[in-house]
């Protein structure tokens, strides 16, 4: 969206009102204890909002539609949390969670100006222009958001059509890695765009500069905006790559098999280790060494790729147990640590089969080979007891 300076100030006020109402409802919900009665639901909170608008002029100056919709969104968030489909609602912070939603008759008031431009009617603001990245769907609501760089976006609530299956019966395996973002069983190696060397150097300079700035100063605000711009640029490239790759895989293959990886747990910060000999002191927990791995996993978009595949091709994405898929020969099935010579080279010590290590793992994933599911004991235990692993997988 491209609002005027006056419209941008009014949009920020709407975002502030929606954030204030959301946080107030979250505070009421968080204060519940077993010895108290039930917390107010949407209807009671809507009545409280009406009373608050009658008392406070700054709240009355905002849009009642925006504020009531924030209460509806919070009520739906709590229902999703109790249903087990979403996480617990959290606080909304200024500068990070800027946005609001419009539902009802106002959402249908969209005027097309020309081939590329249109305008949406926002309550108490008027017509705001936006650039059409695609045709505007017949939606009953839309959401207006502002990212940390200051860019405004409008998103219409519409379920996109699913990507049709090619009906060829082809199966593909996808191996996600750090050096290669996604390796396919067909031999293709896909690499997610990463920040350029100049951007990394610029980011370090800005971070050092911000460390010397005083909190709350204008200089710190400008440096922080420049850092956010670099992160937003990298995030946009990563999202574009995920959308293109997921659409291409959904159109080419009927079945897409991926590793069953818990990315959120893999990138979780390690817990501190208290030192029993020295109170209030801690032992090394490998946090610094693991930070690089966490960063590599996140910039390769492991979780986003599988999530978008599941949304575009529901029922056609299968998850395979990931244990020992990179150590197993896709030709003879021999599993041994010696098969993996390096990060990129796989050479089977039993049959001599040689291939790219990531492609070999992708072939095992495409075949649905879960080594640990067919073994009674772990291959690592057998390796300690015997000089060589058995040839059968």
Relevant terms:
393 residues, five-stranded mixed β-sheet, three-stranded antiparallel β-sheet, 12 helices, globular
Structure in a nutshell:
Helices cover 41% and strands 16% of the residues.
Give a written overview of the molecule.
The chain is an alpha+beta fold and 393 residues long. It has helices at residues 5-30, 42-55, 57-60, 64-83, 197-211, 218-252, 263-266, 287-299, 302-312, 357-366, 371-374, 379-385; strands spanning 98-103, 110-112, 117-122, 126-131, 141-146, 152-156, 171-176, 182-184, 189-190, 255-259, 273-274, 282-283, 317-320, 345-347, 354-356. The chain starts with a helix and ends in an 8-residue tail after the last helix. The chain is globular, with a radius of gyration of 26 Å. The relative contact order is 0.09. A five-stranded mixed β-sheet has the order 9-8-7-10-13. Strands 1-5-6 form a three-stranded antiparallel β-sheet. α6 crosses α9. It is built from twelve helices and 15 strands. Among the domains are: 5-156, no CATH class; 190-254 and 264-315, no CATH class.
């Amino acid at each position: 969206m491209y609002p005027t300076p006056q419209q941008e100030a009014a949009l920020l006020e709407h975002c502030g009102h929606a954030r204030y109402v959301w946080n107030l409802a979250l505070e009421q919900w968080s204060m519940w204890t077993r010895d108290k009665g039930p917390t107010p639901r949407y209807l009671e909170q809507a009545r409280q909002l009406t009373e608050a608008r009658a008392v406070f002029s700054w709240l009355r100056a905002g849009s009642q539609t925006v504020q009531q919709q924030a209460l509806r969104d919070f009520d739906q968030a709590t229902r999703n949390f109790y249903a087990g489909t979403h996480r617990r609602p959290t606080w909304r912070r200024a500068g990070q969670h800027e946005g609001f939603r419009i539902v009802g008759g106002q959402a249908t008031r969209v005027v097309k100006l020309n081939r590329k431009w249109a305008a949406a009617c926002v309550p108490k603001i008027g017509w705001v222009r936006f650039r059409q990245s695609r045709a505007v769907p017949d939606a009953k609501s839309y959401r207006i958001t502002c990212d940390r760089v200051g860019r405004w976006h409008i998103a219409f609530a519409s379920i996109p059509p699913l990507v049709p299956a090619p009906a060829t019966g082809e199966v593909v395996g996808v191996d996600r890695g750090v050096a290669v973002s996604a390796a396919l069983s067909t031999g293709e190696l896909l690499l997610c765009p990463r920040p350029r060397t100049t951007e990394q150097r610029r980011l370090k300079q800005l971070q050092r500069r911000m460390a010397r700035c005083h909190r709350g100063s204008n200089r710190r605000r400008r440096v922080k905006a420049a850092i956010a711009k670099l992160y937003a640029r990298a995030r946009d490239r990563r999202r574009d790559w995920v959308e293109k790759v997921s659409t291409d895989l959904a159109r080419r293959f009927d079945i897409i098999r991926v590793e069953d990886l818990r990315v959120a747990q893999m990138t979780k910060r390690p817990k501190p280790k208290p030192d029993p000999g020295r109170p209030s002191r801690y032992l090394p927990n490998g946090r610094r060494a693991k930070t690089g791995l966490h960063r590599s996993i996140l910039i390769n978009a492991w979780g986003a790729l599988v999530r978008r595949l599941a949304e575009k091709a529901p029922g056609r994405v299968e998850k395979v147990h990931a244990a020992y898929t990179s150590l197993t020969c896709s030709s003879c099935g021999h599993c041994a640590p010696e098969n993996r010579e390096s990060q990129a080279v796989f050479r089977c010590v039993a049959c001599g089969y040689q291939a790219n290590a990531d492609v070999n793992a992708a072939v095992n994933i495409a075949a649905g080979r879960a080594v640990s599911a067919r073994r009674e004991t772990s291959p690592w235990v057998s390796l300690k007891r015997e000089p060589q692993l058995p040839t059968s997988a």
